[in-house]
């Protein structure tokens, strides 16, 4: 959590000193993408909102690929600012603001954001690495709102039905509660930031788990009706930036794919499937009918050796939950020489539905010589010095280097039925290895996520067979020869949001 610690203060001060020394020259003849017209400049100068009243916070990550992506986004914002103001706005990368693991959960950042910027700023705008901002339009949008009042702005999402990832909130009418799509950017006015910062300082955050951050942030701000609800802003968009639908938009999604090279080879990924005897006939056949054929190296690990599948008994008794002993045995086997020497390890449950070809594309962005731990990130006790972890159902991806460092640390399960993903998170936190989040992995079923949230994704995984036809779900959402999605699923022009 950000605090008034002098080291953290130096980090923020460094950002401000750099930006204050960054001299912006107006260039009347500037041209090309990102340049602003004279009309745009007149709009800004006639507007009551100054560009320097906005603090941009890019929700960044410490992995080298994500640092590059966030730096590109910051560079684009500052480039646009050159033709709009004598001095640029403050643009921060969230992962650099302190050494606290919990900063990605946003709320712990608020006290120091309030302390550092409440006097001279009117808005904090949060955006993701792939969020493309049209600076002129954003200023016009924000100027519509009274900056002296509390505002919470964004593109609204809602649940069609109550869902486990939101703890079945608003079960009688799930669609009534709106929460922001972070990919479209979202904004909070300074008066709201100041009040929330005081609340975070004075009242410990109540929830132990951070599961779906955008929903939980909205709940915290709304505060059972004591705070503002999300105000829908039509100009905050998630369509591709080159789409005709974005002409009115202040934000859109970048259409430029990351420069990551060719997809990794199938031979570079070893797939470990956790199963048990009672699911050999129920869940394993689903894998064999869907994604198993796309794996070059795959083994099923069970409490019962079944040559018809085949499965491997690791000597760890089955447990009803947790499976920590089995997962650590898989990690040890991965390094033992008993399996092929691959760069990547993917660990999944027997009810995980996954696209391995899309995973190959995603992994091309990551360096396997680094300790990469990738998947859908959850958090536990983040406001009290807790840890992040990859939730296991959506799939956990480890580089070989990450597995080596993890096992060399001596970290172990405290029991065979301990929650494997959470124990791994504790171990990674103790060793100082970051968890890297990708929203393309999903711990739950497609219907557990807002339709508009999935509309700008090409997902990599889903989890659970409960009350669904898993083969039909795989064919609709994950099978690569069905990239043209139905109108009630992905948009025709959806892109992989890496």
Give a description of the structure.
The protein contains 14 helices and 23 strands. With 498 residues, the chain is an alpha/beta fold. A seven-stranded mixed sheet has the order 15-14-13-16-21-18-22. Helix 9 packs across helix 11. The relative contact order is 0.11. The N terminus and C terminus are likely disordered.
- Report the biggest beta sheet as strand number plus sense, adding barrel if it closes: 7 strands, mixed
Shape: globular
In whole angstroms, the N-to-C terminal distance is 27 Å
In spatial order, strands of the major sheet run 15-14-13-16-21-18-22
Radius of gyration: 23 Å
What is the beta-strand fraction? 15-25%
Give the low-pLDDT segments.
1-10, 13-47, 482-498
Which structural class is indicated by helix and strand composition? alpha/beta
Please give the count of helices: 14
Instruction: Give the helix proportion (percent range).
Output: 25-40%
Total strand segments: 23
Average of the residue pLDDT scores: 88
């Amino acid at each position: 959590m950000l605090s008034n610690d002098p080291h953290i203060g130096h980090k923020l001060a460094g950002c401000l000193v750099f930006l204050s020394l960054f001299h912006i020259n107006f260039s009347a003849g500037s041209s090309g993408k990102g340049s602003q017209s004279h009309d745009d400049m007149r709009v800004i100068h006639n507007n009551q909102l100054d560009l320097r009243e906005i603090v941009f916070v890019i929700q960044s990550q410490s992995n080298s690929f994500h640092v590059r992506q966030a730096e590109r986004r910051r560079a684009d914002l500052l480039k646009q600012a050159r033709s709009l103001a004598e001095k640029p706005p403050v643009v921060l990368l969230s992962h650099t603001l302190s050494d606290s693991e919990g900063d990605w959960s946003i709320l712990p950042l608020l006290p120091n954001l309030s302390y550092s910027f409440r006097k001279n700023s009117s808005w904090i705008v949060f955006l993701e690495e792939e969020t493309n901002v049209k600076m002129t339009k954003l200023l016009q949008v924000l100027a519509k709102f009274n900056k002296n009042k509390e505002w919470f702005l964004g593109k609204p999402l809602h649940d069609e039905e109550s869902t486990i990832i939101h703890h079945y909130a608003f079960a009688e009418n799930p669609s009534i509660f709106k929460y922001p799509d972070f990919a479209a950017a979202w904004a909070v006015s300074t008066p709201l930031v100041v009040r929330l910062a005081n609340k975070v300082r004075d009242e410990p955050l109540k929830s132990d788990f951070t599961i779906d951050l955008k929903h939980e942030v909205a709940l915290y701000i709304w505060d059972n009706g004591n705070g503002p609800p999300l105000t829908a802003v039509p100009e905050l968009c998630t369509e591709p930036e080159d789409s005709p639908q974005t002409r009115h938009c202040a934000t859109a999604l970048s259409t430029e794919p990351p420069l990551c090279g060719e997809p990794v080879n199938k031979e570079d990924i070893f797939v470990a499937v956790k199963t048990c005897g009672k699911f050999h006939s129920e869940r394993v056949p689903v894998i064999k009918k869907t994604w198993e054929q796309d794996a070059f190296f795959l083994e099923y690990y069970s409490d019962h050796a079944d040559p018809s599948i085949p499965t491997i008994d690791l000597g760890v008794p089955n447990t009803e939950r947790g499976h920590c002993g089995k997962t650590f045995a898989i990690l040890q086997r991965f390094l033992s020489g008993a399996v092929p020497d691959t760069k990547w390890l993917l660990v999944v449950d027997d009810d995980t539905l996954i696209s391995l070809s899309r995973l190959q594309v995603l992994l091309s962005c990551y360096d396997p010589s680094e300790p990469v731990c990738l998947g859908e990130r959850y958090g536990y006790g983040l406001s009290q010095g807790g840890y992040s972890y990859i939730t296991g159902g959506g799939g956990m991806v480890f580089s070989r280097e990450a597995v080596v460092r993890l096992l060399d640390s001596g970290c172990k399960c405290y029991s065979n039925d301990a929650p494997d993903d959470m124990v791994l998170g504790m171990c990674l936190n103790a060793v100082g290895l970051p968890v890297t989040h990708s929203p393309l992995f999903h711990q739950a079923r497609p219907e557990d996520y807002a339709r508009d949230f999935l509309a700008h994704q090409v997902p990599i995984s889903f989890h659970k067979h409960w009350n669904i036809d898993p083969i039909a779900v795989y064919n609709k959402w994950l099978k690569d020869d069905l990239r043209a999605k139905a109108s009630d699923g992905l948009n025709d022009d959806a892109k992989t949001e890496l």
